[in-house]
Model the fold of this input.
Amino acid sequence: MFNTIKKFLPILLSLLFVIACGGFDGPQSTFDTHGPVAKEQADLFYLILWAGMVVLVAVELAIIYIYIKYRRKKNSTRVPSQTHGNTKLEIMWTILPAIFLAIVSVPVLSAIWTIGALPKNPDVVVNVHGHQYWFEFKYQDLDVVTANELHIPVGKKILINLYSNNVLHSFWIPKIAGKTDIIPNQGNYMWIQGDDVGMYYGQCAEFCGESHALMRFRVIVDTDEDFRAWISHQKSEAFVPNDPLEKSGYDIFMSSKAGCGGCHMINGSKKAKGKIGPNLTHFGSRQHMAACILENNQVNLRNWIRNPDMIKPGNIMSGQAAVYMDPNKSLTESEVIALASYLQSLK
Done:
């Protein structure tokens, strides 16, 4: 048995080494920090890691020392003296770990306080609602509602209020801030700040159903100028198409047959006032769709409209929309193309 383990030990160690290795600048790396909250958490991780390494090395050295000093000598028949209790030693190994933990607890408590203390005057307040399986973003006092792509101004403190009326979710932006649970009918909160302009990956980090792994989002950190321009554009009413194909898609969207307006909001429309699904007023301006698992383009959009359950199992759209539940109301291919063209026009 020992020889078998010895034979495969190098292979096992190599596999562990490969599994453990990951790029520090990966899309969801918590070590490539771009915000004060993420940096505070990474610094705390390194502190605890090295503190643990000190304890590990000290204990292992003590074990090696004891093993060498008190091992049975060759050809020795002498029985080692038996010790029952050592008051000084017991006091020492009780006090020293307590002192060590007290020292480590100072930066730990400081980090918890820093991360948990909400900004008194946040620059932007966003109410985040977790759905199955997508995130809705409502900018408080700015009258903007969007989905799955959260825009924030660079270097500004953002207060995030977290809500869910279905199941437990968790809001996580690895490079900007750690995960915070969204508790059904109770709410939670956190604050974030993006220090560098760019796009960052977000993810639901709490199992919430069969498409939990497909519940993603993006955080776009804009310059102040770009953020103000984005907010101004989001406040505008939806584009009304003139192109025949887009106009046909508009009519389908607003029709009672498709019933899209019963679940989705289009600002400025009297027929599309639904709040079950994402607000689609400026859907065409988003870089991603289906909770950021697909690029927002014609091919992906048509596939989504044809069969959303194939792309994201268990989504409400495929389970409640009449065009998927009633065979007599199924969309034809020409209607799918027209509808996708209209949605893409909503810049």
In short: The mean pLDDT is 90. The CA atoms of residues 46 and 52 lie 10 Å apart.
